[in-house]
Design brief:
Blueprint lengths: L2 E8 L2 E8 L4 E5 H9 L4 H16 L8 E6 L5 E7 L8
Antiparallel strand pairs: 1-2, 2-3, 3-5, 4-5
């Protein structure tokens, strides 16, 4: 399986993504998307608190829609982070 990891920008904000050629699916960094949507200064903390809140309020485990992938973080180090595809965002 060949893997392609790239960065795209949305409104001048980088979004890390990963293309899985075996399934022909793009996966996007949840933390990067949360940063854009929430305008939070700490999107990683925001995502963590949101997972806890949704689990306690609705009983929904948001981690089940995610994959853990290692990608280059803004500090240049390879770090594990949550990713999901476009279908994962359609949780009802």
């Amino acid at each position: 399986m060949t893997e392609e990891q790239t960065i795209i920008t949305f409104e001048n904000t980088p979004i890390r993504r990963y293309f899985d050629e075996a399934t022909d699916i793009w996966y996007f960094s949840i933390v990067d998307v949360v940063a854009i949507l929430s305008e939070s200064v700490s999107p990683r903390d925001y995502w963590f608190r949101m997972k806890v809140r949704v689990k306690s309020d609705d009983g929904l485990e948001l981690s089940t829609i995610c994959r853990q992938l290692k990608m280059k973080a803004p500090d240049g180090k390879m770090r594990t982070t949550d990713y999901t595809n476009v279908e994962g965002w359609r949780v009802s």
